[in-house]
Design goal:
The chain is about 30% helix and about 15% strand. It has eight helices and eleven strands.
């Protein structure tokens, strides 16, 4: 049985450029949908946060405005998350897990990872362990921010020169945060040496694979990214 580590933000706010705190957390679709895909595949899932704090969902992710103008998707995500509430209430401490105990690490997005995982040397070292063991590293939307602290011995980014995607500048602008953010994910990935890819237009699903690095651009990319990971882990068994 494949063992999946869900590395989830423990932050419920994001510090904007002017110092104000914006309520956030993980993005509901990006945790619920991949969790369901992995569960249906029969994988064993461990949810972990820094310090083992209970993760908070970004309420905006349930709103009709962020789900095509209808209530059904948000209601569906909330229902699924309610169904795993007991698991979410007692996450493992991400600072104490080991790559050798898992076959894959997956980082859901939301602005939360921009606040904590993106600046965590401890998590960066854990990502390095997964890479050293040739195991898949995956992140969706703002989740790739959590890959930024993964560094080589010379200080360069561990994924320098690799193809990667994530929440684009255009998408951040359309949700109203491009001018408020202390930094933009697309810019930071490029500045770190990543070869950034994005869909032809904002909000279209887009998944980028480069070796053991799997990234998805936005919420719509959550399912195809998870399905690509399932296919990869199942083929590795053969």
């Amino acid at each position: 049985m494949s063992r999946i580590l869900f590395a989830v933000t423990g932050s419920d706010s994001w510090t904007l450029a002017d110092g104000t705190l914006h309520p956030c957390g993980y993005w509901p679709e990006e945790l619920a949908v991949p969790h369901e895909v992995f569960t249906d595949a029969g994988f064993e899932i461990t949810i972990a946060t820094p310090g083992g704090v209970r993760p908070a969902a970004d309420e905006a992710g349930f709103s009709p405005e962020m789900n095509g103008g209808t209530t059904e998707p948000g209601d569906r995500f909330r229902s699924y998350l309610d169904g795993i509430a007991e698991i979410l209430s007692v996450p493992a401490d991400l600072n104490g897990v080991r790559a050798e105990d898992f076959d894959l690490v997956f980082v859901p997005g939301g602005h939360g990872p921009m606040e904590d995982l993106a600046v965590s040397d401890t998590f960066g070292a854990l990502i390095g362990e997964f890479v050293a063991q040739s195991k898949p590293v995956a992140a969706v939307c703002h989740g790739p921010a959590a890959l930024l602290p993964a560094r080589n011995g010379d200080g360069s980014w561990l994924f320098k020169g690799r193809r990667v995607t994530g929440f684009s500048n255009a998408e951040e602008s359309q949700v109203g945060f491009a001018d408020k953010a202390p930094w933009l994910l697309q810019n930071r990935l490029i500045e770190s040496g990543g070869v950034f890819e994005e869909s032809g237009s904002p909000w279209q699903e887009h998944v980028t694979l480069d070796g053991n690095l799997y990234t998805g651009q936005n919420p719509a990319s959550s399912r195809p990214l998870a399905e690509a990971l399932v296919a990869a882990l199942l083929s590795a068994r053969v």
